[in-house]
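Structure in, sequence out. Go:
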């Protein structure tokens, strides 16, 4: 199989989302990956449930993006990469995060370049 460029690719299901929608889904995956929803003092059972739901949503969305990229459409590939990069820029780097939002154990960046 080879990558193709066009607007007639069938992505996952007939009539499904266009390439730009996959960028938004990629940003959502990055947000879920870096979100800090739980606060100290929450019940362990509730925390476990919330973490499980967030993990399931992240994995499900990531697999949907992966399946879309496997359509071998260049537009979908570019949208997925731009979405993940933009999501990491917004939610994963210290450029848009102040010190009070970081936990004591967190490194300021997930980037191996620092």
């Amino acid at each position: 199989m080879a990558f193709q460029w066009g607007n007639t690719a069938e992505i996952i299901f007939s009539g499904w989302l266009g390439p730009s929608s996959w960028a938004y889904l990629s940003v959502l995956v990055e947000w879920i990956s870096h979100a800090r929803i739980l606060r100290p003092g929450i019940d362990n059972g509730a925390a476990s449930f919330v973490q499980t739901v967030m993990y399931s949503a992240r994995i499900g969305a990531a697999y949907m993006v992966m399946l879309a990229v496997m359509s071998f459409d260049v537009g979908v590939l570019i949208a997925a990469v731009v979405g993940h990069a933009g999501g990491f820029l917004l939610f994963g780097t210290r450029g848009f995060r102040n010190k009070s939002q970081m936990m004591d154990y967190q490194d300021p960046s997930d980037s191996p370049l620092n």
